[in-house]
Design a protein that fits this description.
The chain is α/β, with parallel strands linked by helices and about 525 residues long. The chain is about 40% helix and about 10% strand.
């Protein structure tokens, strides 16, 4: 079998032609004395000492609950820092806290970071915690890339100071296991935007349909994007399969067909352990056969449990993966695929986009989302808010005059703005409006994570992971597709909300170049 060179860094592993294996380490809630038997430190060290394990990846409060931070554990195995990936999620820290954490990681020599939006909190002391989501994964990726280039910050006496460059190896996630076109395509478009923002490697979220994993690779190839993709495997049990099937763990999908199969094997003498171990090993073999850069194994809670899966994966013949690919296609009911299916190979066909999808681009179906409110909003935007066109120059001059000499008319205009936007959109008066970016659906009102740069990975059958509303970005997609704008829906600069504009006129801020739409300074 393939034995990794444990002197290689994680970055070198993904650039290598050799297929490496990584292991997931989840921290815990509560104290973890370093010298206690069976502790997390021993677990991580045992994994890093195993020649079959190339790297470990330490999670950041997965599932939304509070746990020990990943850098705590990373610091205890610092001698292996180049073989450690640290997750960094946006749910618990604002942009300043995330930047501080990134400086800490850089100072301690941890350069491989998986940038995530994060799960919505599910608990906390005294009740459910209020999430932060000040920025999302794209914003975090853009921040880390800027730090790599030398972050420009205000210095003394107003001068701009360039801070020392970092050397982060930035990863991102994508969630391809979406049942509907309107939630899958925005995931792919956001993946392209993440890579443009600075992501250097990709890991898909969890599912058990190898054709969908393959589609991620094909999609990037159609866009001319060549980045390492890490295949994601989670060792199932009957209980975990039920959880993933329920949709209660965002981004993790087990179809009803696979659940029934696992329940069948779970009734046997070994409770289905051998079947689930073989399923994980076969997935790894398929990733290797498809040309993925590496395989990442989660759901194993003892260090000695990873080896048998890897050894089994390595024991298969060089072409066995082709049979496994056809075998592991547990799709959801009426699931949408972007590429045509080659029934002979079991794979999606490179270069052959779904014919029905291509036809729908020419003749989009009617949608309840394309209502009078949206049509009117587009018309008003074209008339009054399109830079340097129609009424824009006049309104810019008027708002500039009101800004120089505040008075009754300016105050009345703000009141009219608030009342009309509240009635039409549920406006939250943030002052840095993203209605035009989100097809006139307010992200602060209608997205649980206030996602302005595209969807998170948590939607379930087109609904928010909180299951209390339709996913905002699925709705946005339908609106934009009707006007032939869906495929370019995220082709724009990264949006950062400016909190200083809260409860001020977003119209004034737009006309006076104070919000995120202001032209870039040359």
């Amino acid at each position: 079998m393939t034995v990794p060179n444990n002197d290689a860094t994680y970055r070198e592993m993904l650039a290598s032609e050799r297929f490496f294996y990584g292991a997931e380490v989840v921290t815990s809630r509560g104290p973890q004395p370093v010298d206690s038997p069976g502790n997390l430190t021993s677990f991580a060290k045992d994994l890093l000492a195993d020649p079959r394990i190339g790297w470990i990846s330490i999670t950041d409060n997965p599932g939304g609950g509070p746990m020990l931070p990943p850098d705590w554990l990373a610091g205890l195995v610092a001698e292996h820092r180049n073989r450690v990936v640290v997750h960094l999620a946006c749910k618990d820290l604002n942009r300043s806290g995330l930047e501080s954490a990134a400086w800490r990681y850089a100072s301690e020599g941890f350069g491989s970071i998986l940038a995530l939006t994060g799960d919505y909190p599910t608990g906390g002391f005294g009740g459910v915690a209020e999430p932060v989501f000040d920025i999302d994964a794209i914003g975090l990726i853009d921040l880390l890339r800027s730090m790599n280039e030398g972050l420009n910050v205000p210095g003394r006496r107003g001068k701009i100071e360039t801070l020392p460059k970092t050397d982060f190896f930035i990863g991102c996630a994508v969630s391809p296991f979406k049942r509907h076109e309107r939630e899958l395509l925005p995931q792919y478009f956001k993946l392209v935007r993440k890579i443009a923002a600075g992501a250097q490697w990709v890991i898909p979220q969890l599912g058990y349909d190898m054709r969908k994993f393959h589609e991620v690779k094909l999609f990037l190839e159609t866009r001319g994007i060549d980045v390492p993709i890490v295949g994601n495997v989670y060792l199932l049990t009957k209980g975990v399969a039920k959880l993933f099937n329920s949709g209660k763990l965002a981004g993790c999908v087990v179809s009803s067909e696979l659940l029934r199969k696992i329940e069948k094997y779970a009734a046997g003498p070994d409770k289905g352990k051998q079947f689930c171990r073989e399923l994980a090993a076969k997935q790894l073999a398929v990733f290797k056969g498809l040309g993925f850069a590496a395989g990442y194994i989660g759901g194993v809670h003892k260090a000695e449990g990873f080896g048998p899966i890897i050894e089994l994966a390595e024991s298969y013949g060089p072409d066995d993966w082709r049979d496994f690919l056809k075998e592991i296609q547990f799709s959801q009911f009426e699931e949408f695929f972007l590429f045509e299916h080659d029934k002979f190979t079991g794979m999606s066909e490179a270069g052959r986009i779904n014919r029905d999808y291509l036809a729908s681009l020419k003749r989009p179906a009617k949608s309840k989302e394309v209502n009078l409110n949206y049509k009117l909003s587009r018309r008003v935007h074209g008339l009054a808010f399109t830079r340097d066109k129609a009424l824009y120059p006049l309104l810019k001059r008027i708002y500039a005059r009101w800004d120089r000499k505040p008075g009754f008319l300016g105050r009345m205009a703000y009141r009219v703005e608030k009342a009309s936007k509240l009635a039409m959109y549920g406006c939250q008066d943030c002052g840095d409006c993203s209605l035009p970016d989100c097809a006139y659906i307010c992200p602060k009102k209608w997205c649980s994570k206030c996602q302005r740069n595209g969807p998170c990975g948590g939607s379930i059958d087109g609904r928010c992971e909180l299951e209390d509303k339709e996913c905002l970005w699925a709705r946005v997609y339908e609106r934009l597709k009707f006007y032939g704008e869906s495929e370019t829906m995220l082709d724009r600069p990264v949006i950062f909300y400016d909190a200083k504009l809260k409860e001020t006129s977003s119209w004034a801020n737009a006309y006076l170049d104070r919000d995120h739409n202001m032209p870039e300074k040359k």
